Task: structure prediction
Amino acid sequence: MTAHASALERLLALTAALPEVSVGTSYGDPSLRVRDKAFVTLKDETTLVLRVPLDHKELLLTTAPDIYYETDHYKGWPGVLIRLPVISDDELALRLRESWLYKAPKKLAATLLE
Result:
């Protein structure tokens, strides 16, 4: 199994409880989607792009710069880069859930929050 496939399997395992998650692509890279909206993209075997609101992004960048970062390309964009080798499964599962809620349609998100 390639490292890329292993990283994707990790994401799928951590999102198994989230409704309507599918695998697709975003700009040619593997992504997880909810109703055709990408909420996380695997840039390479060590880097994720997680969609988050800008205010939440700033909080993550400030509180855990060893895990969360951005490059000039992502400045001002509602997404944060994640270093996969240093984030725990518990923290990653939490961030994936938050990102899913951010991108999911309101009615679908409400089913998860009930």
